[in-house]
Design goal:
Layout lengths: L4 E6 L2 E8 L7 E2 L4 H5 L19 E4 L4 E4 L2 E2 H7 L2 H10 L5 H12 L9 H5 L7 H11 L13 H27 L12 H10 L10 H13 L7 H10 L5 H12 L7 H12 L5 H9 L20 H16 L6 H13 L3 H5 L6 H12 L6 H21 L28
The protein binds s-citryldethia Coenzyme A (SDX).
The site of s-citryldethia Coenzyme A (SDX) has 22 residues, from helix 17.
Length: 429
C-alpha cells in the first residue's frame, strides 16, 4: 500500500480511495468500494486503464519494451533457459534446482500421452477443419477424461491438471495437425526433449526414421519460451474469468484457446503471414502502408501494434534473430516474405503515422516466417501459440485460484437501452 490516496469529486460529493504500489510499474487506485460509496461504476471498455488482478508472474514495461517472467528478462530466459525450465519458473516462482528441473522434466514427459479414446474425437471433424477449431473441441473434452483432476479445491488435483495440460497440449496439437494433413498420429517418445518430441510428432511418418534437427528443435523451444506468458492479455483474462466461476482447468484453457484464435490476438501470426503473402513484393508495400493509415480502410498491418508495447516488442527482436537462424540452417537464402517483412518494418518504422501511434512489430510479425520455414502451414501458427501459452494460462489460473481474496469476476455496465415498458400484443404492433 502507498501512503497516497485518490480523491474523486463528483458534483460536490467527494470520495477517497487507497492507492496501492507494486514492486515495479504503475500504482493502482483501489476503487473496489466506488459503487458502495457513490452508486457509480467506472467505465473502461477494453480495459485500457484497468488492472483486473494482482499478480507476481509477469511484468511488462510497454514504454521501455521490457518483459520479465518472475523478474528474469525474456532475453536471458530465451538465451540460457529451456521451455520446461521456464514453465517451472512461471508455475512455482523460482528457477528450478538441478534436481527439481530433472523431476519436472520427468513428470511432464511421462504425462505426454493422451487417453487412447480421445483419438475418436478427431474422426468427427472434417479433414479441412481449422486446427484451432479442433483444439477448442478436444482440449475442452479433456474434462470428460480426466475427472481425477477437475476438483480445483484440491491442490494435488490442481497440480496434476497443470502437468497434464503442459504435457498433453503438444500431443493434441500434433494430432490436430496430422489429422488436418491426413497422416497417422505419432506417439510421443520419452527419450526426446519437449520441443524435439513435438517436432517429431508433427513431422515423422511411419515410412522412415525421423531425425530431429537440433538447431530447429532449439528454435522451436525458444519460440515456445517467447510465447509462454504475457501478463493479463485477452486470452489470459478469459482463462482467469472462466476460472473465477470454479470451472475446471481443462474448460478454462479451452476458453483461452478460443479467445487466442482472434486475429487481433494470437491469430495475428497466421494473419501476418497471409498479409505478407498478399503484399507479395517489396514494390507493393507503399500501397499497403497507405491502406493501413486510411481510416476508411479496415486493413491493419498484422503483426504491428500492441496494447501495451509502445516500443519494440522484445520478443519480436528475439524472434527475428531466430528467423535468420532457422532460414540459415535450412539453407533458405532469399525468402521473398522475409524480404517483404524486413522492408515493411523499415518503411513503417520511419513513417510518421506509425511513429506517432507508436506502432512497432510485435511477436506475431516474424513468427509466421519462422514457422512456415519449419514446415508448418499457416493454419497451425496459432495452435503453436496456444501450446506455448498454456503454461501462462495455467500459472495465472493457479495464482488466481490460490488467492484467498479470489471471487467470481462479474463486471457491470453503462445501460443505454429502453426504460421499462409494457408488452404489446402482436395484433396491436
Ligand atoms: C498479441 O495483449 C497481449 O499481450 C497480446 C500478445 C500476447 O503475448 O498475449 O502480445 C499477443 O496479441 C500481439 C498483438 C497481435 N495483433 C496484431 O498484430 C493485429 C494488428 N494490431 C492491431 O489490431 C492492434 O495494434 C492491437 C489489437 C494489437 C492493439 O490494439 P489497441 O491497443 O486497441 O490499439 P488501437 O486499436 O486503439 O490502435 C491505436 C491506434 C488506432 O488509430 P486511431 O484510432 O487512434 O486513429 O493505432 C492504430 C489504430 O487504428 N493501429 C494500427 C495498427 N494497430 C493499431 N494501424 C495500422 N496497423 C496496425 N496494426
Amino acid at each position: 500500500m502507498s501512503d497516497r490516496t485518490a480523491k474523486l469529486d463528483v458534483g460536490g460529493e467527494s470520495f477517497e480511495f487507497p492507492v496501492r504500489r507494486g514492486t515495479i510499474g504503475p500504482d493502482v487506485m483501489d476503487i473496489s468500494s466506488l459503487y458502495s460509496q457513490s452508486g457509480m461504476f467506472t467505465y473502461d471498455p477494453g480495459y485500457t486503464s484497468t488492472g483486473s488482478c494482482e499478480s507476481k508472474i509477469t511484468y511488462i514495461d510497454g514504454d521501455e519494451g521490457i518483459l520479465l517472467h518472475r523478474g528474469y528478462p525474456i532475453e536471458q530466459l530465451a538465451e540460457h533457459g529451456d521451455f520446461l525450465e521456464v514453465c517451472y519458473l512461471l508455475l512455482y516462482g523460482e528457477l528450478p534446482t538441478k534436481a527439481q528441473n530433472e523431476d519436472f522434466h520427468y513428470r511432464v514427459t511421462h504425462h505426454t500421452m493422451v487417453h487412447e479414446q480421445m483419438n475418436r474425437f478427431f474422426t468427427g471433424f472434417r479433414r479441412d477443419a481449422h486446427p484451432m477449431a479442433i483444439m477448442c473441441g478436444v482440449v475442452g473434452a479433456m474434462s470428460a477424461f480426466y475427472h481425477d483432476s477437475t476438483d480445483i479445491s484440491d491442490p494435488h488435483q490442481r497440480m496434476v491438471a497443470s502437468l497434464r495440460m503442459i504435457a498433453k497440449m503438444p500431443t493434441i496439437a500434433a494430432m490436430a495437425f496430422k489429422y488436418h494433413v491426413g497422416q497417422p498420429f505419432v506417439y510421443p517418445q520419452n527419450n526426446l526433449d519437449y520441443a524435439s518430441n513435438f517436432l517429431r510428432m508433427c513431422f515423422a511418418v511411419p515410412c522412415e526414421e525421423y531425425q530431429v534437427n537440433p538447431v530447429l528443435a532449439r528454435a522451436m523451444d525458444r519460440i515456445f519460451i517467447l510465447h509462454a506468458d504475457h501478463e493479463q492479455n485477452a486470452s489470459t483474462s478469459t482463462v482467469r474469468l472462466a476460472g473465477s466461476s470454479g470451472a475446471n482447468p481443462f474448460a478454462c484453457i479451452a476458453a483461452g484457446i478460443a479467445c487466442l484464435w482472434g486475429p487481433a490476438h494470437g491469430g495475428a501470426n497466421e494473419a501476418a503471414l497471409n498479409m505478407l503473402a498478399e503484399i507479395g513484393t517489396v514494390e507493393n508495400i507503399p500501397e499497403y502502408i497507405a491502406r493501413a493509415k486510411d481510416k476508411n480502410d479496415p486493413f491493419r498491418l498484422m503483426g504491428f501494434g500492441h496494447r501495451v508495447y509502445k516500443n519494440y516488442d522484445p520478443r519480436a527482436k528475439i524472434m527475428q534473430k531466430t528467423t535468420h537462424e532457422v532460414l540459415a540452417e535450412l539453407g533458405i537464402k532469399d525468402d521473398p516474405m522475409l524480404d517483404v517483412a524486413m522492408e515493411l518494418e523499415r518503411i513503417a518504422l520511419t513513417d510518421e503515422y506509425f511513429i506517432e501511434k507508436k506502432l512497432y512489430p510485435n511477436i506475431d510479425f516474424y513468427s509466421g516466417i519462422t514457422l512456415k520455414a519449419l514446415g508448418f502451414p499457416t493454419t497451425m501458427f496459432t495452435v503453436l501459440f496456444a501450446v506455448a501459452r498454456t503454461i501462462g494460462w495455467i500459472a495465472q489460473w493457479k495464482e488466481m485460484i490460490e488467492d484467498p481474496r479470489q471471487k467470481i469476476g462479474r463486471p457491470r455496465q453503462l445501460y443505454t437501452g429502453e426504460t421499462q415498458r409494457d408488452y404489446v400484443p402482436v395484433a396491436n404492433r
